[in-house]
Q: What sequence folds into this?
């Protein structure tokens, strides 16, 4: 990013941000949805985005960074265009979740959250996706997929843009 390039929400996202503010009693309560909005627009949350949000919201940068580091679906490092979450909690692991996760890393020649060479996907091991009834499960961006095996997972991931 050049020094002249200004980071800011698009007009549409700025309107969404302002709408968030009407839902909460204080601005800090709007931080999580605002972080998700920023990540949706910018892809991840590097320092210059945190600085922009801190100025926009009047919240200290360190507080924003603490929130980002606490939640495992907020990223302070670059990630792929598509995020694949694989559940590896006990129920999913009993049905092959850990093997699916390891198989995906090997198949796509990547590592935990490291974007593939083409930048298309990042794979993240999750402690629990809360869908034990469809174990093993995974989430492709915001879509759940259950009762999967490695080949089905690869097929569905390969369909992502």
A:
């Amino acid at each position: 990013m050049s020094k002249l390039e200004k980071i800011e929400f698009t007009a549409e996202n700025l309107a969404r941000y302002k709408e968030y503010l009407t839902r909460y009693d204080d601005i800090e309560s709007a931080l999580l949805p605002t972080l998700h909005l920023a990540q949706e627009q910018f892809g991840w949350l590097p320092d210059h985005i945190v600085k922009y949000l801190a100025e926009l919201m009047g919240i200290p940068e360190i507080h924003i960074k603490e929130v980002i580091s606490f939640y495992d679906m907020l990223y302070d490092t670059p990630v792929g265009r598509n995020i694949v979450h694989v559940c590896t909690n006990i129920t999913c692991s009993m049905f092959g979740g850990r093997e699916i996760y390891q198989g995906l890393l090997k198949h796509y020649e990547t590592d935990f959250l490291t974007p593939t060479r083409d930048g298309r996907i990042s794979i993240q091991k999750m402690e629990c996706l809360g869908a034990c009834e469809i174990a093993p499960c995974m989430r492709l961006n915001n879509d759940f997929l259950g009762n999967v095996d490695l080949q089905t997972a690869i097929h569905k991931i390969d369909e992502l843009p």
Remarks:
- The first strand starts at residue 82 and ends at 87.
- The two ends are 25 Å apart (CA to CA).
